[in-house]
Structure formats: C-alpha cells, structure tokens
Amino acid sequence: MKTSLATLTLLIISYLFLSIQSVEACQIGEVEAEVLPCNEAGQFSVLLDFSFEDVGAEGFRVQGSGNNYGSFEYDDLPLEIGPLDGDGNTVYEFVVIDNQIEDCSNWTAIDPVNCGGVGECEIWDVWAEPQPCNEEGSFYVLLDFEYNNVGEEGFHVQGNGTNYGDFYYENLPLEIGPLAGDGTTVYEFAVVDNQYVECSNWAEIDPVDCEGSGGDCEIDDLEVEVQECNDEGMFYALLDFEFENVSEEGFKLYINDDLFESYDYDDLPVEAGPLEGNGETEYTFSVTDQFFEGCNAAETIGPVDCEEGENSSDINENEILFPNPVIHGGTLNIQRGLEKPRDVLLYNSKGEVIFSEKGVQADKINISSKYLESGVYFYRIETTGRSYRGSLVVY
Fold this sequence. Notes:
- The structure is a single chain.
- By secondary structure, the chain is mostly beta strands.
- It has two helices and 30 strands.
- The strands form nine sheets. Strands 6-5-8-9 form a four-stranded antiparallel sheet, with no helix packed on it.
- The longest helix is centred in the N-terminal third of the chain and has 21 residues, at 5-25.
- The protein is elongated.
- The relative contact order is 0.08.
C-alpha cells in the first residue's frame, strides 16, 4: 500500500506536535544534592533527589563533570551517587536527563569537598600562652595552631588526664581553663581532629606559680621624670621603678587608663610620649605585670604647661643648687620658686645616692656639704611639673 505525500506530511506534523506536547509536559524539578560524610579513603557520596511530572517510561540518566553515573528509574529516588574524590578542588555537576525525552532535564552542582584523609590532614605549630593569674590563683591558656585538610567535625583538646572539650576550627584561638597555678604542674595540650584521630599535635607550658593574685611579685617606687618640652608644645616622661619576683612576660604601661605600650623589664627606664603640655591635663602613669595582674604601681603628675617655657620663667637653671661650686664644709641651698612638693637627690660619680629627701614643702632646704669629699657630684630635683638635673662641684 502506498502512502500519499499528503498523508506522510500529516503523519510527520502529528509526530512533531505530539513530541512538542510531550516535551512541554515533561518536567524535572529542582535537583537537590546532599553531600554525605567522607569515608576513610577520602571519598564521599551525594544523595540526589528531585521532583518530576509527565516524564518518559524509560527512566533517566545522570551525567556531569565528564562522568556518566548511569541510568535509573524514577522510583529509585532518592539515589546515591558515588564514591567521589574529596580532593578539595573539583566542582561536581549533576545533570538529570529523561531517557525518552532528551529535552526534559535539569541540573545542579556542589562546591569542592575536602575530605582530607588521615594522611593529608595536618595540625601544626600548636601555641599555648598562659594568661594573667586571677585572684583565685588560677589562670587560662590561649590556644591556637595551624591546620590543613581537617575534618568537618571539629577537634578536641586533652591533656594531663583531662578532656577540655570539643571545638570548631573557626573558633580559634580559644581559651582553656581555669587551671591551677600551683607552680609545679607542667600542662600538656593535645589537639586531635574528631574525624581523623591520627591527625593531631600538641604543646606544653612550664609550671605557672600564681600564688594568689600575683604572690610575691612587687613593683615599687614608680618615678616619673618630665622631660623638656619640644617646639610643638609636647613633652616626654621618663619612667623607672623597682621590681622583684616579676614574670618573664614584662609589663604594660597605661597612661590615663589607656594602654600605651608593653615592655620588658630590661628596657627600664622607658620613655613615654609625646604628651600634650597644655597646662591643664594631669597624667596618671600605671604599670602592671603582664602575668600577675595584681602586681602594679601608679603615679600621677600635675599639668605640664609647655607654653610657659618649662613651667616657670623665674627659674635660673644654672642656680637651682647654690652656691655652686661650694667649699667643703659649706651649706647648699635650693633655689626659691620651684614647684612643690620637691624630691631632692644627690649622687656620687658612681651613681650611688648619697642624699635623698622626698616631699619637701619648704621654700628653702639646707644640705650640709661637710660630709662630701672634694669632687664632682650630681643632683636631681623632682617637682610635680618637671625634673631638674645638674652637676655640683665641691672644692
């Protein structure tokens, strides 16, 4: 039986019409890909699911990233695709295509998954820094470290028979404690990945002796010496103090409750500034041990007025201490007009203090020189506004 050209044309048009209707009717909804936990081989699988409507009777296939993951029945959903390499670099695409209606499809993609693996997970440079002791004689440790290719389940910290808890890497650095500052315990801190237990590292700290709130740590006799003003109306202050049983971490300097700088005790004396000499602002200098918070000292100086040229235009610095030179057995005087109170100190050529009197309120003070041998001496006179220095000749 022969088919006429008109009949053939009608059949083709009908087929195309039905095909178009099928494509328009077939729907594959949003494809969801859930990443499943990595295995010990550093691989993972993906749980794939989606909605569908008016699909073909021959199922669907999944392909993507150069892979053909196979053909499946719609009744198989959700289905597991894998294993896939969790190399931390590959972006995996999953394209779902109806096996009968090629144009009926949808897709999704997932970001790179880093499974790491026991051999690739790294934790290194574990750093544990003791924090200042508290009043109960205990302290905390600030813990931090470097890491790479770690698991997604965080890590735990343990040591000295204690499990300090589970943490997430994004929470670093973290505080561990409180710990007893008994002066004898060496504390160990082992960091272990929760997913890859062979991925770990550790650090330890020497015994910490808190002895209450600072124990025998002492900072005393804080002296603040005002230096000369500069052309901008600013000045510096020279600080020095006595100390005993302090920590190796050094000390912090605060000026009017604001942290100025941290120093080692070997840096003393230290210079702080520049500070504004506006004739109005009082400055309080406080030093606190970096580790023993209760070990501190403070000193306040009155306003420094740089605009008045060292606070007093009536002071002749060549005659602060007079007569100078002075004959052996004579009497020394302190010039009138210096700010009150005054601290007066005399030093010999070795730098040893041979005379000291603090808080002098009188306008005049006599220092007998009959006990001074002939030679050159040095003086320092401290006031609330500034410090005066010079040399003294006895003949």
